TrEMBL record:
Species this protein is from: Collimonas arenae
Keyword field: Signal
Tree of life domain: Bacteria
Protein name: Lysozyme inhibitor LprI N-terminal domain-containing protein
Signal peptide range in chain numbering: 1-22
């Protein structure tokens, strides 16, 4: 029977504070991004560059995390996990675009969309960690 990993991801989102206490190595914005964003001095254009770099880095991390997690799952679970990953990517693109639509300035709208995508990617990374942890410890 295929497991639906969406429930694990949702639980990870809801339990993020508890997970961050239990697993201090949880995923967060990179120190490079934080320094870049702080130095951007409220300029939307400068922040856009910081966000683009961070989104690229976190997207790569999500792809790597997906591959590492899928590798430890048996056949049917691996396929369900891969299907869920594809669905998740489509969903966050739509959700973050809709969320950003309230911004009237184009660069602010794009920055809001990127920030949303990064946040959702970080949550996915934490969810993948939880799946790997559960598989590793036989839960």
């Amino acid at each position: 029977m295929m497991k639906n990993y969406r429930h694990v991801i949702i639980a990870a989102l809801l339990l993020a504070p508890a997970i961050s206490i239990a697993a201090p190595a949880g995923h967060d914005f990179s120190s490079q991004f934080q320094a870049c964003y702080a130095a951007a001095d409220a300029s939307n254009e400068a922040r856009s560059s910081c966000l683009a770099d961070e989104l690229n880095a976190q997207s790569k991390a999500a792809a790597d995390s997906h591959a590492a997690t899928a590798q430890i799952l048996p056949g049917a679970e691996r396929q369900a996990f891969t299907d869920d990953f594809v669905s998740w990517k489509k969903t966050i693109l739509l959700d973050c675009s809709l969320f950003a639509d309230k911004q009237t300035v184009a660069v602010e709208r794009e920055n809001t969309r990127k920030y949303c995508l990064i946040e959702k990617t970080l949550a996915r990374l934490n969810g993948d960690d939880l799946i790997r942890q559960n598989k590793t410890f036989g839960k």
